[in-house]
Each structure stands twice: as C-alpha cells, then as structure tokens.
Design goal:
The chain is α/β, with parallel strands linked by helices. It folds into three domains: 4-54, no CATH class; 59-190, Leucine Dehydrogenase, chain A, domain 1 (Rossmann fold), CATH 3.40.50; 210-372, NAD(P)-binding Rossmann-like Domain (Rossmann fold), CATH 3.40.50. It is built from 18 helices and twelve strands. The protein has a seven-stranded mixed beta sheet, sandwiched between helices. It has a five-stranded mixed beta sheet with strand order 1-2-4-3-5, with helices on both faces. Helix 13 (329-337) runs parallel beside helix 14 (353-361).
Amino acid sequence: MTTNNDLVELKNRVIERSPAEQEFHQAVETIFDTLEPVIRKHPDYAQAKLLERICEPERQIIFRVPWVDDQGYVQINRGYRVEFNSALGPYKGGLRFHPSVTLGVVKFLGFEQIFKNSLTGLPIGGGKGGADFDPKDKSDNEIMHFCQSFMTELHRHIGEYTDVPAGDIGVGTREIGYLFGQYKRLTNRYESGVLTGKGLYWGGARVRTEATGYGTAYFVNEMLSAHGNGLDDRDVVVSGSGNVAIYAMKKIQELGGRVIACSDSSGYIHDSAGIDVELIKQIKEVERGRISEYPKRSHHNATFVPGRAVWEVPCHVALPCATQNELDAHAAKNLIKNDVIAVAEGANMPCTPEAVELFRDAGILFGPGKAANAGGVATSALEMQQNASRDSWTFEYSESRLKEIMTNIHANCYETAEEYGRPGDYISGANIAGFTRVAEAMLAFGVI
C-alpha cells in the first residue's frame, strides 16, 4: 500500500526531474499534499503509476519566434506549448504572452489545467502555451507580425481534435484573430474549433469574455451559500482590473455584493460606495489607461493609493484576479485580521502556499483557482461545441450553461471533500475530484 512517505518520496522525484521550475513545483506539491486518501482507497492508481504519468507532460514544444518590429529590426522570442494530458479529450488551455513566461510557468499552468478541465465535466484535456513576448507598448502591426510568426510554428501541433489553444494574459480577441488568420492561411482550412476566444462574427461564443469573472462570482456565491451566508451586502475586494477582475466585479454586484476596491500594477482604488464597473471598463479596456484615473472621473468619494496592495482594505470576501503568487502571507494576515470570511482565486494560483495555509488554519472558506476560475475554459469548451455543430447560442442560454457548470463544480468539490473526511476543504475536494476523473480515464486506456 502506498503511504504518505511514499508520496513525499515520489513528489521529490518529480521535482528533481524538473529543476528550477518553481511554479510547477508549487502546483505539484498542492496536488500531492491532498491525494494520500485517494491512493489508499484506490491502490490500482499507484500500481499503474498514474501519479508519475500525470506529472510528466505528454509533449513539450519549445520554439524560436522571429519577427520584425516597426523600425525594421529583427526581434527573437521563445514560444512554448506544453501538451500535458489528453485522457479526457484534446489538449485545452490558453496562450500567455508576457515577459515572465518560462517553461516552468507554462508547465504549472498546464498541470493545473488538467484538473480544472476535469472539474468542468466536459471532454477536454489539459495544456498551456505562450511566449516571453511583451505586447505592452507594441503597435498593432508588431503584434500581428509576432502572432503570425508564432502560429507559423505552432500550427503543425494543433487542431480541433488534437490541441485547442485559447487566450490568456496578453492574448485577447485581437491576438486570437491574428493567430487564426495565419492558421487559416497556412492550412487552407476554416477550422473554427482550432482556437477559442474568437470574435462573435467568426465563430466566437457569447459570454466567453465574461466567463472567467462570472464563474468566479458564481463559485464564491455558492461557497458562501453552502455555509449559511451569501453575497448580499458583503464588502468585496478584487485584485486586478483586467478582463477577469472586471467581470467578477460586475457579477458580484448583480448577486448583491459590494465591490469596494480593485487594483492594477500602479496601486489600488478604494470606493466605499461601490466601484463603478462601467467606468473601470472605459478606462482599462477602451482607453487602456491606468486605474489612477478613476477617482478623477468618479461621482463617488473614491481614493487612489499608489504602490500598495489592495489586501490592506478590510472586506468580507477577497478575489485575487491578477496573476500567480500575488497574495502572500503578509496579505493573508491582513485579510484575516480584518475578518475576511471567504477567498476565491480568479487568477491561476494567485495565493502563495504560505497564504493558503494561513487561510486554512483560520477556517476561511477558500476556493482554489482550478475550481473557482474554471468558467473560462468551460465556456471555451462550449465554444468548441457550437463550432462543431455550426451553431450559435444566445447570451442568456450561454450564461445559464456557465452557471450550471459552476454550480456543479462547487457541488462536486463540496461533496468530494465530505466523502474523504475533509468537510469544507475545497482544495482537497477540487484536487481529488479533478484527479480521480482523469485517473479513471487513464486506467481505461492502459499504459500509453
């Protein structure tokens, strides 16, 4: 029988095989730390080496991306696609364009994506990709040249039945358009289902833009409701002011919560009357401006605090929606001191392990990203479904499907945690529920 010591030994071997990939190590540790009761209940998982197999990507692709800037100079970036696990369906996961992208970051994102996609209940495997390209301050022409060069290499590795990328940080509808145009040019095929996050007029899905933020709001509302609370009249703080943060704020307010603070890399704004989400959208999405503009244009008595973390604002609910490891132990202590009751990750792994441990020890409801932010990939899978049937759904129907999926994810995490003797532990519930579905599929296929 596999013991906890065996799992620690195995975890250490996995980490040793991938040196200097800190984010990947963090994701692996989070999974391993919750799976001992699963392996004890299912010894056939250990016999088939499922943990070893699931931690090793099926394929890792690293490639050069040369492109020409507006001054005529050749620039070189590095592109990645990690196709991690296809037990449940074609690889599915976004592309991230940001200077922080490394193989370790892409592997962490792809590893998390396996379990997140599994939790949706939809037929999609896990993968992730990106490049260390910074779209910030680049012209449309430069971004187009980069995307076309990136897809010139990537196109040979993807397909609607093989690997279906989407957007992530730095990759929105504009970038997906350039990528899809180059794929179409190279293959001479109009395969709508090869990329998701497309524009509505050429195969995109309604609610995809809103999906990750809406899904996070639905999840935290379900989490609070399951423990005798709700969002009504709760003060909510959100980090970030990009796509996920904006739509999380919008849906939180529709569900009765009051978002009183949000942030960007320059600092945060505090508006005790409730953030004007439409004004944030205008500043950040239309004007591509800084959040410091908000107090100057708001009708409320809002303030901008430069260079500080938003987590110092007292709140009932905290939603980290910016990037990985943004909420550390110091921030967690601040939130706990100020009587936070729930935290849900709108971004991928935005809380450090130390912060997560503090929340668990304090009995704070904690929704991990693989559950709380699964709405984005779930709606991407629904976009694939519409593309396959040459169909287009209404906004209302699409949102109802998203809400149903997020409600089911919450119920699955909640019930799995109860089943394994860890009531209220959404980290264990999400990890175990996500892992077991993939494990059963891998067992069915034999050793491949």
